[in-house]
Amino acid sequence: MATMEAPPLARLGVRPRPRDYIRSLWDRRQFALAIPSAELQAQHRNTALGGVWHLIDPLISVGIWWLLFSVILNVTRGVDNVVGFLAVGVFAFHFTMRSVKAGTRSITSNEGLLRAISFPRAILPLSVVIAEVMTLGYALAAMFGVVLLTGETPAWTWLLIVPMFAIQFLFNTGLALFFARLADHFRDLTQIVPYGLRVWGMLSGVFMPITRRLEGYPELLTITEYNPAYLFMELPRRAILDNAGPTTRQWITVLVWSVVMLIVGFFFFLRRENEYGRG
Length: 279
Prior knowledge:
Blueprint lengths: L17 H10 L1 H15 L9 H20 L9 H24 L5 H6 L6 H12 L1 H14 L11 H25 L3 H15 L6 H4 L4 H8 L2 H14 L6 H23 L9
Helix pairs in contact: 2-6, 3-4, 4-6, 4-7, 4-8, 4-9, 4-12, 6-8, 8-12, 8-13, 12-13
C-alpha cells in the first residue's frame, strides 16, 4: 500500500532563505493583489467622487504650487510651460511619495492581520505600492490632459513613460520595504516620513528647474544630477515637454538606483521577518 509522504515542517523562528521567501511571495501573488484592490474599493466608498480623488489631490497640488511658486514667488522663470512642468513633476514625485508613505505604515497599521494569518510579511509593503500602480492610470490621464491643454504636442518619446514608471516602481518597492521595517521599530517615523518626503521633493526641483539654480555650485549640481527623486521627475519632463529621451547616463543611473534600492530594501526587511506583528 502506497503511503503519502508528508511535506517537511518549517522551523519556527528561523528566517527564511531569500529564494524560498521570493517563491512564497510569488505563490501568494493573488493575495498581494487582493489587498490593494479591496482597500481601493473601500477608500472612497462613501464619497461622491469615489476614485476620482486619486487624481484630484495632485491636481490641487499643481494649482497651489503654480500659484505660490510661479505667480507669487516667480521661481519658475525660464520655463516655457510652467503648468506642464509642475504637472509632470508633481505626478511623478507623488508616485514615490505616496508609495513610501503607505509603505511606512504598512506593518504598523496591520498588526491584527499579522497576528491572525501566516504569510510573507513583505506582501504588505508590496501591496501598497501595487495599489499606487493601480491608481496610476488616473494620474497619467490627468497629467497628459494638463500638458495637452497647455499646448504640448504628442510625440513618440511619450511612450518612454512606461519603462520610466516601471523602473520607478522597483525603486518605490525597495524604499517602501526599507521604511516599513524602520517604522515597525521606530513608530514615530510614520509621522516624520511625510515631512521628509516633501522636503526631498522640494530640494529635488518639483516646483522649479533646480539645476539652473545650482549652476554656480558644481558639487551640489553633481549631487542633484544623481539624485533619484530629481531623475524620476527630470526624465518624464524631458520625454513629454522636450520630446527628448533620457541620456544613457540617466537611464543607467535610475536603473542602478532602483535595483540597488530593491535589493537593500528586500534584505533589510527580511532580516526582521519573524518579528513583525509581535508588538
